[in-house]
Q: What sequence folds into this?
C-alpha cells in the first residue's frame, strides 16, 4: 500500500520550527511520507507546493498570530486552482476563538496547545481507513 | 590532614563499606542519574573529583567566579523584561509601566515584518503587524516608542539581527534628536545573524553580506558608541530550538569565533572592539548544570580571548551576558506552575553571575504576557534580589565539589564540541553543511521522545495531571485587530509629510556605497534621518545582497 503523503508547511514570517520539525520526524517514524516546506512560506508558495507534491494531508503550523489572514489567502488560491481533495490540519498557537473561522475555510481540525501529539497520526489513519468518509474534525 | 592518596583510600572504603551495602538494602529511585545534557551524576562529590583544584578569585583571569570582584554587592543585575507588541504607542506604555515598577533596563521586541525588513504595508507582512513585537516602519515610530523616556538615563537592548544596522541607526538618530551624546548611550543590539541561520530563522541576506553589516556595526560602535554592546552572541535561541547546555555554549562560541575573525579581517584590533562583545544565554531547569554552564562559559571565553586572540586588555577577556529563563520549559497546562519554574531558573542565572535577566511570564506558552503576568515575572527577580540574600556574596557555590566538577566537565565537553566545528572549517561552513541544524533537531527530538515516554518528567503534563474540569481559565493577552489599520494609515501619512526627495537621494547613495564597498552605517543613518522606512532601506540591500535560502535539514 502506498504510504500516506503529508506536507507540513509554515506560513507567515515566524522562524520557530522546532514544533514543525518534531511533528515531521514523529510522523515519518510512524510510517508516513513527510515533506517539510521550511519556514516563511507565503500562501502562493504553499499552494504551489501542494500542487507540485500532491500530498494527501496538509498540515499548517502557525505560532505568530497571522493565521486567519494567511489561511484565508491560501484557501482562496487553492479554490481557484481547484485543489479540494486534501485533509487540512492546523496547529501551533491558535486561539480557540479563531477555530470556527478556520474551519469554515476548510481546515478539518485544529490542534491546540493542550492536545496530545499522538492523536495526529491516529486521526490521519482513521480518516483514510474510513475511505475519507469520516469527519476528521 | 590526610594526603590525596589517603583520601582516595577513605573514599574507596566508604564506597564499599557504607554506600554499596546501603544501596543494596534500599535501592536508589533510578538506575542512574543524569544532567539535562545526559551526563552521569555520581551519588556524592568530593575534592577528589577535581584533578587540580585551582584557587580562583572573582574579577581575575579566568573569571570563572565572576567578572567583577564584588559582583552583586556592587550593583545588582539589570532587570530587563523583553517587551513589545502592537504599535509604538502601546509598547511605550508597557515600557513606562515596567520602568515605574522598578525595572532597570529596556528590551525591545520588534514584530516579524520589522525584523525581516518589511514595511507594515508589504504583502509579506500580512497578518503579522504588531503580533510578536512592536511595529517600526521608520524613525517616527521610534520617536513614539521612546516618548518620555530619555535615552541617556536608560540602557536599551534591541532584538534586531538582519536589519540591525537600520535599527541602531534609528536609535542613534533618536538620541541626537533628544540631545544625547552617542558616547553616553548604553545598551545592546543583538546583531547576531549566524544563530538565525542555525536556529531562529530570521535572516534576510546571505552570510557574506550579513557579516559585512555585522562588522560595520562593530567598527561604528568601537569609534562612536564606547558603552554600547555591539553584538549579543546568542545561545538562547539555539537552546530554545532544542540544543542542550553543552551545544548551546559550543555553538555560541563557534559563532563568536566567526565574528571576531571577520572583524580582524577588516583590520580592527581585537582590544579595540572586544569590550563591546556580549552574550545571551538561556537558563533551563537543571539548576546545577546551568550554574556550571555560566561559570564554564566565562572560563572558556577568557582563555579563548587570551590564547587564541592575544587580547591584552583585561576587559577584553570578561564574558558579559544576559540571561532569559527557558521559554521552552513553560507549559500551557497548569500555567501557574510556570511561576515556580521561572523562579528556579532565575536563581540559576543569578548564582551563575549574569549581568542582566529576563524572567518569562507564566502565560507565555499561550500568548504574549499580560500586564499582570509580567509584573509577577519582574517581582520574581525583585524577591530574588532583595529578600533571599543570594546576591550578598560572590559566587556562593564556588568551591562546591559538585559545581566545580560540573564546571570542569562542561569546559571539557564544550571544547570537544567546538573542535568538531573547527574540523568542519568553522561555523560558517558548518552551517552550510547543516551540522548545527541537524544536531539541534536530533537533540530536540530526543527530548520530545523522552517526555512522551515519560523518561523525563514535566509536572502537570506527563505526571501529576489535573483533571480536565479542574483546569484554570486565565486571562491572556488580546491582540487588537484595528492596530494594523492604524499603522498603515500612519505610514501613509509619513510618506506624504517627509522630504521624499531626500529619501530617494539617500537611498541611491546607500546603493552606490554598497557597490563601492566601505562602512555602510553613516549611509543608513542618512536614510533613517529623513524618514526612509526600514522596508525601503532593506529593499535596496535585498537588491544588492540577494536573499538567503534556508537549508532544510530533516
A:
Amino acid at each position: 500500500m502506498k504510504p500516506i503523503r503529508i506536507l507540513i508547511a509554515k506560513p507567515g514570517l515566524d522562524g520557530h520550527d522546532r514544533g514543525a520539525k518534531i511533528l515531521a520526524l514523529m510522523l515519518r517514524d510512524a510510517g508516513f511520507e513527510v515533506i517539510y516546506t521550511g519556514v516563511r512560506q507565503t500562501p502562493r508558495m504553499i499552494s504551489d507546493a501542494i500542487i507540485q507534491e500532491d500530498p494527501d494531508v496538509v498540515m499548517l503550523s502557525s505560532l505568530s498570530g497571522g493565521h486567519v489572514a494567511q489561511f484565508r489567502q491560501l484557501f482562496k488560491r487553492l479554490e481557484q486552482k481547484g485543489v479540494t481533495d486534501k485533509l487540512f490540519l492546523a496547529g501551533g498557537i491558535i486561539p480557540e476563538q479563531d477555530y470556527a473561522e478556520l474551519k469554515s475555510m476548510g481546515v478539518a481540525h485544529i490542534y491546540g496547545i493542550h492536545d496530545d501529539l499522538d492523536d495526529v497520526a491516529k486521526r490521519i489513519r482513521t480518516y483514510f481507513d474510513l475511505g475519507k468518509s469520516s469527519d476528521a474534525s | 590532614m590526610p594526603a590525596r592518596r589517603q583520601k582516595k583510600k577513605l573514599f574507596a572504603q566508604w564506597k564499599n563499606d557504607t554506600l554499596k551495602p546501603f544501596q543494596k538494602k534500599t535501592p536508589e529511585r533510578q538506575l542512574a542519574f543524569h544532567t539535562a545534557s545526559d551526563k552521569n551524576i555520581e551519588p556524592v562529590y568530593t575534592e577528589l573529583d577535581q584533578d587540580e583544584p585551582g584557587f580562583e578569585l572573582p574579577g581575575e583571569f579566568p573569571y570563572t567566579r565572576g567578572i567583577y570582584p564584588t559582583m552583586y554587592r556592587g550593583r545588582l543585575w539589570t532587570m530587563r523584561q523583553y517587551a513589545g507588541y502592537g504599535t509604538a504607542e502601546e509598547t511605550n506604555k508597557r515600557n513606562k509601566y515596567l520602568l515605574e515598577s522598578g525595572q532597570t533596563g529596556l528590551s525591545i521586541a520588534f514584530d516579524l515584518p520589522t525584523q525581516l525588513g518589511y514595511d507594515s504595508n508589504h504583502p509579506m507582512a500580512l497578518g503579522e503587524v504588531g503580533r510578536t513585537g512592536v511595529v517600526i516602519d521608520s524613525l517616527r515610530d521610534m520617536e513614539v516608542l521612546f516618548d518620555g523616556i530619555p535615552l541617556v538615563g536608560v540602557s536599551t537592548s534591541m532584538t534586531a539581527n538582519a536589519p540591525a544596522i537600520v535599527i541602531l541607526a534609528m536609535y542613534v538618530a533618536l538620541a541626537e534628536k533628544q540631545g544625547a551624546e552617542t558616547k553616553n548611550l548604553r545598551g545592546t543590539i543583538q546583531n547576531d545573524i549566524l544563530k538565525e541561520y542555525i536556529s531562529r530563522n530570521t535572516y534576510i541576506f546571505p552570510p557574506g553580506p550579513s557579516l559585512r553589516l555585522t562588522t560595520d556595526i562593530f567598527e561604528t560602535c568601537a569609534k562612536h558608541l564606547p558603552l554600547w554592546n555591539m553584538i549579543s552572541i546568542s545561545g538562547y535561541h539555539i537552546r530554545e530550538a532544542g540544543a542542550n547546555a553543552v551545544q548551546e555554549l559550543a555553538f555560541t562560541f563557534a559563532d563568536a569565533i566567526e565574528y571576531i575573525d571577520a572583524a580582524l579581517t577588516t583590520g580592527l584590533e581585537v582590544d579595540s572592539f572586544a569590550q563591546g562583545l556580549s552574550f545571551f544565554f538561556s537558563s533551563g531547569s537543571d539548576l546545577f548544570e546551568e550554574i556550571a554552564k555560566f561559570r564554564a562559559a566565562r572560563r572558556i571565553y577568557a582563555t579563548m580571548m587570551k590564547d587564541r586572540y592575544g587580547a591584552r586588555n583585561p576587559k577584553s577577556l570578561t564574558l558579559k551576558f544576559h540571561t532569559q529563563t527557558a521559554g521552552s520549559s513553560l507549559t500551557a497546562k497548569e500555567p501557574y506552575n510556570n511561576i515556580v519554574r521561572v523562579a528556579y531558573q532565575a536563581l540559576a542565572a543569578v548564582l551563575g553571575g549574569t549581568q542582566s535577566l529576563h524572567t518569562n511570564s507564566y502565560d507565555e506558552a499561550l500568548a504574549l504576557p499580560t500586564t499582570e503576568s509580567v509584573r509577577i515575572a519582574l517581582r520574581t527577580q525583585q524577591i530574588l534580589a532583595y529578600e533571599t540574600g543570594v546576591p550578598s556574596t560572590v559566587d556562593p557555590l564556588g568551591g562546591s565539589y559538585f559545581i566545580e566538577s560540573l564546571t570542569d566537565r562542561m569546559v571539557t565537553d564544550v571544547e570537544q564540541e567546538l573542535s568538531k566545528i573547527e574540523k568542519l572549517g568553522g561555523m560558517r561552513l558548518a552551517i552550510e553543511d547543516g551540522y548545527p541544524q541537524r544536531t539541534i533537531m536530533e537533540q530536540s527530538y530526543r527530548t520530545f521522545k523522552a517526555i512522551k515516554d515519560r523518561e523525563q518528567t514535566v509536572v502537570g503534563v506527563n505526571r501529576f495531571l489535573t483533571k480536565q474540569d479542574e483546569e484554570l481559565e486565565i486571562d491572556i493577552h488580546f491582540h487588537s485587530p484595528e492596530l494594523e489599520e492604524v499603522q498603515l494609515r500612519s505610514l501613509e501619512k509619513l510618506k506624504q509629510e517627509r522630504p521624499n526627495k531626500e529619501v530617494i537621494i539617500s537611498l541611491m547613495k546607500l546603493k552606490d556605497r554598497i557597490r563601492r564597498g566601505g562602512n555602510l552605517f553613516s549611509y543608513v543613518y542618512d536614510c533613517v534621518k529623513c524618514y526612509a522606512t526600514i522596508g525601503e532601506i532593506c529593499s535596496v540591500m535585498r537588491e544588492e545582497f540577494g536573499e538567503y535560502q534556508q537549508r532544510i535539514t530533516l
